[in-house]
């Protein structure tokens, strides 16, 4: 984990209110969608572990990770579902974005087809996901400017038309990776009154990276995000 990620996690874990009480904790389910090889897994790995692997194996089904960040006086625990981008896994996607409070739709700035596909994912989320879901659009591989096929202005205009958070990112250089996750965390509602983790799963504060391919994904994360005062 990089120094910035450690500081973010430590700040979330150690933050207290002025009266000495532990900060409020909220937990949310976030899903990453996009074509295969656009860098979804690399973005999550960079955010959670501060690492980048030049050659990343394709995700099968979905990978589950967590990270904790601090937003004002609230500790925000993010349950991150990194979905497979191959077409044969498309039918599984609703099992993972059902009940999600946030989504990052990722495309590769060097591949116009992945941007077209990202638009399809956005439409699907707008039609089938929770009505108040926070959606971000990430133009990944921004370090490959010489191979750019999608202009920033075009992606920005599309994002504005659809009410999306938009940033170009690079998992390789870490450009805007923390920023896009933090922008989402800041927009998530933190006034819900519950003390249970979505789907009953308790986060690991981003200290470990685990892969989870549930036999029954419908049972995971079907409830809304939760907030409650830490004991």
Key phrases:
231 residues; alpha/beta; Rossmann fold; 6 helices; globular; GTP-binding; nucleotide-binding; lipoprotein; Small_GTP-bd; small monomeric GTPase
What does this 3D model show about the protein?
By secondary structure, this protein is α/β, with parallel strands linked by helices. It is about 30% helix and about 25% strand. The two termini are about 25 Å apart. About 20% of the residues have low confidence. It has a single domain, classed as P-loop containing nucleotide triphosphate hydrolases (Rossmann fold), CATH 3.40.50.300. The protein is globular, with a radius of gyration of 17 Å. It comes from Adineta steineri. Belongs to the small GTPase superfamily. Rab family. Its EC number is 3.6.5.2.
Brief write-up:
With 231 residues, the protein is an alpha/beta fold.
- Give the DSSP E fraction (strand runs of 2 or more residues): 15-25%
Shape: globular
CATH superfamily: P-loop containing nucleotide triphosphate hydrolases
Radius of gyration: 17 Å
- Helix/strand class: alpha/beta
User: Spans with pLDDT under 50 lasting ≥5 residues?
Assistant: 6-20, 193-224
Number of strands: 7
Which helices and strands, and how do they pair?
Layout: H1 3-14, E1 24-34, H2 40-49, E2 62-71, E3 74-83, H3 93-97, E4 102-108, H4 112-128, E5 134-140, H5 152-161, E6 165-168, H6 177-187, E7 226-229
Subcellular location: Early endosome
Biased composition (Gly residues): 222-231
GO biological process, one term: protein transport
């Amino acid at each position: 984990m990089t120094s910035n990620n450690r500081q973010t996690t430590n700040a979330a874990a150690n933050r207290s209110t002025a009266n000495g009480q532990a900060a409020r904790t909220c937990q949310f389910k976030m899903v990453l969608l996009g074509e295969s090889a656009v860098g979804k897994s690399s973005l999550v790995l960079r955010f959670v572990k501060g690492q980048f692997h030049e050659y990343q194996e394709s995700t099968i089904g979905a990978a589950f990770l967590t990270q904790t960040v601090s937003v004002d006086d609230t500790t925000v625990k993010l349950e991150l579902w990194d979905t497979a981008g191959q077409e044969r896994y498309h039918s599984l996607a609703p099992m993972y974005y059902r009940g999600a409070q946030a989504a990052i739709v990722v495309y590769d700035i060097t591949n116009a087809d992945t941007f077209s596909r990202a638009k399809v994912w956005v439409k699907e989320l707008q039609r089938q996901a929770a009505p108040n879901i926070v959606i971000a659009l990430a133009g990944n591989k921004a370090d490959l400017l010489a191979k750019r096929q999608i202009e920033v202005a075009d992606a920005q205009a599309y994002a504005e038309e659809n009410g999306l958070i938009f940033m170009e990112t690079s998992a390789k250089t870490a450009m805007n990776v923390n920023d896009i996750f933090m922008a989402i965390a800041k927009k998530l509602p933190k006034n819900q009154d519950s003390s249970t983790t979505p789907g009953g799963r308790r986060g690991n504060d981003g200290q470990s990276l685990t892969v989870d391919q549930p036999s029954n994904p419908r049972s995971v994360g079907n409830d809304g995000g939760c907030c409650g005062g830490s004991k």
